[in-house]
Amino acid sequence: MLLAGVSLMSAGCKKESGDGPSSGKDAVARIWVHDDKGAPIEGVSVLIFDEKGYERFEKDRNTQPADRTKTRSDGKVEYRLPYATWLKQGNRFVTFVIYEKRDMDNYRIWAIGRTIVPGKKEQIEFTIESSGPTEEPAETPQGMQFDMYDENHGRTLFGEALYLDAEHRFAGADRYSLVDAGPTTGVDAIGALRLDGFTDRIAAQPRHGYFICKDISLQEFPSGKWALSVAAEYIRAYIPERLYKDQTPVGVRIYYTLHKPEEHGLPQWKQRYKVSLAGERSLVIDLQGIQGSREFAARKSQTLEFIEEAGQVTVQIIDPNAARGNSYPFYIRSGTYYTEVSIEMTD
Fold first, then answer.
1. What contacts 19, CB < 8 A, 6 or more positions away?
2. pLDDT in tens, 293-347
3. What DSSP state is assigned to residue 53?
4. Looking at per-residue confidence, does 235 or 265 come out higher?
5. What is the dihedral of CA 48, 50, 54, 55, to 10 degrees?
6. What is the four-CA torsion angle of 300, 301, 302, 305, rounded to 10 degrees?
7. How far does Cα 288 stand from its chain's mean position?
8. Residues in contact with 279: Cβ distance below 8 Å, sequence separation at least 6, in sequence order
């Protein structure tokens, strides 16, 4: 699956001295919350999630955190992560979340993740944009918010691998590929999945939309076209702006949503069809629900033949060594999606 959750990671930690945690093993998160003008925000609840908890939160926003804390009048709070509770098994990836909810369809989320190391301190800084009841135009970006800093300013990770290089290009790290969907106004305006020209390194441009797919979920067909597994997920992402520090660009802000393949009409992933060895050794699959271009490919060559006609495809076993118990996996592509199914030989 594409995403077990979005995460950020600090590139490294500086050695603390003098005022380190008293236990020598506890860790401390120094959290600061301020608005876009730098003014501190008092009384903001910060939710603390462990790895599994944040994965659940991404799917269900009612998920309870492992703990929570609240900012003081100066917008700051120090949250201690006890060694015995959090760090006994070693380093932990912890996500700090601010969840501003007005109703089920109107909310904002800020999430910052860090690899927490025993005896170390981490700086967690949130910038909360001011907004009022009349300050949310229709083109306001929707989805989860994520602040992504480049490799020279923290190298935060998206999906535990995707990062922003020094030239502000998305880098897939041999795990993710991206498509620039072009200029747009937000996540919802990006449209249906496209895989044309996907690459593992692409410029991160403000006011552009992107499709992000996990490499392992992509399959190339004999025609040269690529498709995404119907069992996978993909991300639509939108960059409203760059992030700056002292007038120097240090990253980008992302809004993103997670999606499953839709309206493909393909058979269920890993569906198995049974064919009798004593019969014609063929299978007919109805294609009436499949829209757009179609393509078929056997996992093993010289074992299957595909004959498409009148809204259906006949899959013929041509393996001269066909025998009871043999399995013949094959792929069916519909536009940008594909499924894998198989034929099993019976008596």
1. none
2. 889 999 888 899 999 887 889 999 999 888 999 999 999 999 999 999 999 999 8
3. H
4. 235
5. 180
6. 90
7. 32
8. none
Residue in this structure with the two tokens 């692409």, named with its chain if needed = 202
208-214 and 234-245 beta bridge pairing = antiparallel
Structure-token pair, residue 290? 């499949």
Please compute Rg for the chain using Cα positions. 25
Encoded tokens for 297: 């490919």
User: How far apart are the C-alpha atoms of 223 and 201, rounded to whole Å?
Assistant: 24
Closest CA to 221 of 211, 232, 229, 213: 229
Q: Where are the alpha helices (DSSP H) in the chain?
A: 51-59
> β-pairing, 106-116 with 92-103?
antiparallel
Residue 276: Cβ within 10 Å count:
11
Total-model pTM: 0.60
Give the strand pairing for 144-149 and 248-259.
Answer: antiparallel
188, HSE (Cβ side, Cα atoms, 13 Å)? 6
pLDDT of residue 250: 94
Phi, psi of 94 (to 5 degrees): -120, 135
Instruction: Provide the 3-class DSSP secondary structure of residue 204.
Output: coil
From the list 328, 323, 325, 324, the residue with the least C-alpha distance to 341 is: 328
CA dihedral 196, 199, 203, 206 (to 10 degrees): 50
Structure tokens at 213: 């797919």
